[in-house]
Amino acid sequence: MKTARPWQIALFLAPAVLIYSLFSALPLLDTLRQGFYTTNDAGVFSFVGLDNYRTILFDSDWSSAFWNAMGNNFKFFCIHMALQNPIGLLLATLFSLKGLRGARTYRTLIFLPTLLSVVIVGFIWQLIISPLWGVGEKLMTLIGLGDYFAPWLGQESTALLTLSLISVWQYVGIPMMLIYAALLAVPEEILEAAHAEGASAMRIFWQIKLPLILPTLGLVTILTFVANFNAFDLIYSVKGALAGPNYSSDLLGTFFYRTFFGYQAQIGSPTMGAAVATLMFLVILAGVGGYFYLVQRKLTRYAL
Amino acid sequence: MPSSSRSVSTPRLSLIQRSFGPAGQLWVHVVLCLYAVIALFPIALILINSVKSRAAIFDNPMALPTVDSFSLIGFHKVLSNTNFLLYFGNSLIVTLGALLLIVLFGAMAGWALSEYRFTGNRLLTLFMAIGIMIPIRLGTVSILQLVVALNLINTRTALILVYTAQGLPLAVMILSEFIRQIPAELKDAARCDGVGEFRIFFQVILPLIRPAIATVAVFTMIPAWNDLWFPLILAPGDETRTVTLGVQQFIGQYATDWNSVLAALSLAVVPVLLMYILFSRQLIRGLTAGAVK
Fold first, then answer.
1. Domains in chain A, please, with CATH?
2. Looking at CA atoms only, how far is residue A58 from chain B in angstroms?
């Protein structure tokens, strides 16, 4: 590292720090602050302490909506953890196998949906499983599952699961690529040695590759967590801000949007919105904090 | 490739064959092919049906368009009822504008943080890094007030600034990591010749970071192009609408007109598809290069 004149360093840093502070860091801090305030009709802010949080967490109208969204969000996250990441791991492991022909083509093709906008993906699947069009039903009949077809997006019991699966379908590419990159970084000599000792590919996977990519799996987990607890676009474009039917697909993101901008009879409130955003921030902070704590404690043991 | 020091009598089998039997390779292909179909079929179905007549869409959705069933009516409707080309231009301006600012400002900050010793360096690095994990959306209440106060509501500038703020933290990390790997001799030689720090950065360093731009672009342009949240809140006006928002609003309005809906979706997918065909190699290299770090 070299020393330069302070004004030179400041000039290099200024644009990035300024834009980042002004449009990201300070708004976040200010949102945390506004959660403690309320506004009247004239738009005058007054300090109310923890009142907003009391309302959201304990007022029966609010708390049932909030906990519903929170619970749904956990289900949304669990489905991603149970499907998206294992499928991503499986695919990455398969096409990183040595000597597999067409590996690059598979990788390119399977990654494609991840590039598209969630909005587009949501609409595509909405059409495909629409009973009106009947493509989904026809396809299921083709593989003998026709009787199980139902208007999944319209039923309270299945809407959230269906939306989660759509999201899994789209984002499988992200864990896949991250894990693939980690598998590429596994030292060749270790694999060669294990191979020469007669270890099977299964054994090599479980006992060598998996422990070595554990830090990446941790990273994938926390990225999934943050993305899921921040999700909005898919639900909003397929089900609207009301996240129907009967709020069964409501996530914290759509709950935040309704609180901030209002819906139907309820008038939106920036300060209540700020309080919801603060609660989301705390959830995400807990996840990220927990992740770094674990990384510090455990995962570094396996670092290459 | 493997040395031949091992026994020569047994033919070397690939790892796949050794663990799944001689047909192992086949099974791996079956699984990957199946998943590739699952990944691509929905997209193909939309593209195919977008160029068919309404009757053909419903009668036989899985059939390719024939001379009889071919119809571009959906595209006519989308292009005449919306400013689709304008939306497309808006998306391009916003994402490219943000990318330009992110690369330039991110490289400048990354250079300062990795090259110079000064008080607060680690603190500033940490401050920037927070933005990698904490989503910028959580500050929306305040961002909206700020954008209103700056009189930037319904402008592409607002979106460019927000996406720049969103992309900078990761870009600073990627670029400072990259700049750190540039051989010190290059900078020292320039310094010995009495070249100033700014010229070293702009004439020596900046041209060298080109390979890292792909990585930065992948992580900043794709989320910005696909975002619905900020266009919806900061720039919902027709003049400044991005493709993602435009398609969302259009489909909300014409939900029952299947030709239009399919055409709108195709119009949103095709440019991304073309870009992907052109740049998939760079994109995937950028993605994996960024991921290893």
1. 50-302 (1.10.3720.10)
2. 22
Whole-model pTM: value is 0.90
How many CB atoms sit inside 10 A of residue A206's CB?
12
Q: Are A222 and A44 in contact (CB under 8 A)?
A: no
Residue B51 shares a structural domain with residue B108? no
C-beta atoms of B287 and A177 within 8 A: yes
Q: Which domain holds residue B38?
A: 15-71
Radius of gyration of chain B (CA): 25
**Are both B118 and B252 inside the same structural domain?**
yes
Cβ neighbours of B276 in A, within 8 Å: 108, 112, 115
ipTM above 0.95, yes or no: no
A12–B128: do the CB atoms touch at under 8 Å? Answer: no
CA atoms within 13 A on the CB side of B96: 6
- Please tell me the distance in Å from B213's CA to the nearest CA on chain A: 16
pLDDT digits (tens, 9 = 90+) for B94-107: 999 999 999 999 99
CB contacts of B273 in chain A (<8 Å) are: 112
Q: In terms of domains, do B212 and B91 share one?
A: yes
Domains: count for chain B: 2
**B34-79 tens-digit pLDDT:** 999 999 999 999 999 999 998 888 888 888 888 888 989 999 999 9
* Contact residues, chain A, for B48 at CB < 8 Å: none
The answer to the question of residue B2 being in a domain is no
